[in-house]
Write a structure and sequence with these properties.
Elements (H helix, E strand, L loop, with lengths): L8 H4 L27 E4 L11 E4 L7 E4 L5 E2 L14 E3 L2 E3 L2 E5 L2 E6 L7 E11 L8 E7 L4 E9 L5 E6 L5 E7 L9 E12 L2 E4 L4 E4 L2 E11 L5 E10 L3 H4 E3 L3 E5 L3 E10 L7 E10 L2 E13 L2 E4 L4 E2 L7 E11 L7 E8 L7 E5 L4 E2 L4 E9 L12 E8 L4 E7 L9 E8 L1
Parallel strand pairs: 16-23, 25-32, 31-33
Antiparallel strand pairs: 1-3, 2-14, 3-8, 4-7, 5-6, 7-14, 8-13, 9-12, 9-14, 10-11, 10-13, 15-17, 17-21, 18-20, 18-22, 19-21, 22-23, 24-26, 26-30, 27-29, 27-33, 28-30, 31-32
Length: 433
């Protein structure tokens, strides 16, 4: 079960030959560790690391669970050099020196637990890789990043002539990460490989909660009540939000609030600000609210943003004044806008609708018809244009109908003493923006 062999110190001192000077024939691929070939191994007990949920954790400060190396010990912050510990040079790739990282020699492995402190979730490994300049254009290796059982990254064959590569590997769902360098299939001569600035990106354990559905009036700013639960109490930092929607988000709504600064509190409630566009024609926009820390997603929750139509409520008088043929009367109709606050208001227009005799009554708005968001008075001018009305029109009742956008409300209005008998008549009030 234990494939890691712990070499006696005395054997490590037996430098049989300098790396790269051994004939390849003696370096057949193998799984057993052979101290006489310069191999080196180290194991430690599985234990929690010091990985914290605040973003970037340098592996330079982490204790490996397992470390094996093909030529002397793995070197920290220097190239592999020869078999003695600490005999390497500054880590150098493509003429550039790097202060932090590991200088290793194929075949090599560094293994780390991803169990972070304070419920940290370690979600990504990043590093730069290459064959160290100390072997010139020689060496031939492959860098691999493994999770628990699967290989998550493979650099392909790299030599001393290869350009430095950036590695960024998603580790979600893994409990450990293994940094492997193989000999590239041609033996380990000159295989001096560098992991430069190896880091684990660890984020806090955060959950989000929003209502099943939130409705906001079109063309207004509204609030999305968000509850953030931070299970990593040591975490103090910024959480940023974005919406992933099946629709073109920017066309329909915009998340105006983009972040929260968490200060270690277990739970925070925040009113995220959302602007709902005018073109929001769908009833509900399903999607996800996604929270990120250090560029990494940390939580998401279903988000259903819906629209509400603004309404202009017209408070018609209980009775209309007498209508005299050829004379006009003006009625004042108070208008309130629902909701108030940040709505944009309405522009109202009217037209008569008297069924079979539409030209017997004129109706028009006095002035622009603009009703601001705080409400106002709509003045409607009514003029009866005919002295004689159809015989069957004997009922002294009319309706003023308000239309805003598609259809809204009907306001029946009793007409009082009307010298000119009206048929059941409508005046249509049309609202726009
Ligand atoms: Ca060394
Ligand atoms: Ca090789």
């Amino acid at each position: 079960m234990n494939r890691w062999w712990r070499p006696p110190l005395m054997l490590l001192t037996l430098a049989l030959a300098a790396c790269g000077q051994m004939p390849d024939s003696s370096l057949e691929a193998e799984s057993n560790v052979r101290p006489e070939e310069g191999n080196w191994a180290f194991t430690s007990q599985m234990k929690p690391q010091t990985l914290m949920p605040d973003g970037i954790n340098s592996l330079a400060y982490e204790r490996a669970l397992v470390a094996t190396n093909g030529w002397g010990p793995i070197e920290t912050d220097r190239s592999n050099g020869q078999q003695a510990g600490g005999d390497g040079k500054p880590l150098t790739l493509g003429g550039v020196q790097y202060p932090k990282g590991y200088g290793v020699h194929a075949p090599s492995e560094l293994s780390y637990s991803l169990a972070g402190a304070d419920r940290a979730r370690c979600v990504r490994f990043r590093a730069q890789i290459g064959v160290d300049d100390e072997v010139g254009t020689q060496g031939s290796v492959a860098f691999q990043v493994w999770g628990d059982t699967a290989k998550l990254y493979d650099s392909g064959l790299m030599t001393g002539e290869s350009a430095t590569q950036q590695v960024s590997v998603d580790l979600r769902g893994q409990s450990r990460v293994r940094l492997v360098v193989t000999d590239g299939g041609n033996g380990k001569s000159f295989d001096h490989a560098d992991w430069i600035n190896p880091v684990l990106v660890c984020v806090p354990d955060i959950t989000l909660s929003v209502p099943d559905e939130t409705r906001i009036y079109q063309d207004t700013h509204g609030t999305l009540p968000l509850t953030i639960t931070n299970n990593s109490k040591s975490f103090r930092g910024d959480v940023t939000y974005a919406v992933q929607s099946y629709y073109g988000t920017a066309e329909y709504f915009q998340l105006v609030s983009t972040g929260t600064r968490l200060t270690g509190a277990a739970q925070q409630v925040q009113a995220l600000r959302v602007y709902m566009g005018l073109h929001a024609t769908e009833d509900v926009f399903p999607g996800d609210l996604v929270a990120s820390v250090a560029g990494e997603e940390v939580a998401r929750t279903p988000l259903n943003l819906g629209t509400l139509e603004q309404q202009a409520v017209l408070h018609f008088p209980a009775t209309l004044p007498d209508l005299q043929v050829g004379k006009s009367v003006v009625i004042d109709v108070p208008v309130s806008v629902v909701p108030g606050g940040e709505t944009t208001g309405f522009n109202l227009a009217v037209r008569p609708n008297i069924g079979q005799a539409p030209d017997w009554l004129d109706a028009s708005v006095v002035g622009s018809g603009d009703i601001p968001r705080e409400g106002g008075i709509l003045q409607i001018k009514l003029t009866a244009t005919r002295a004689a009305w159809p015989d069957e029109a004997t009922e002294a009742e009319a309706q003023l109908r308000v239309y805003e956008q598609n259809f809204a409300h009907t306001y029946p209005v009793q007409i009082g003493s009307v010298p000119v008998r009206l048929t059941p008549a409508d005046i249509w009030v049309r609202a726009g923006k």
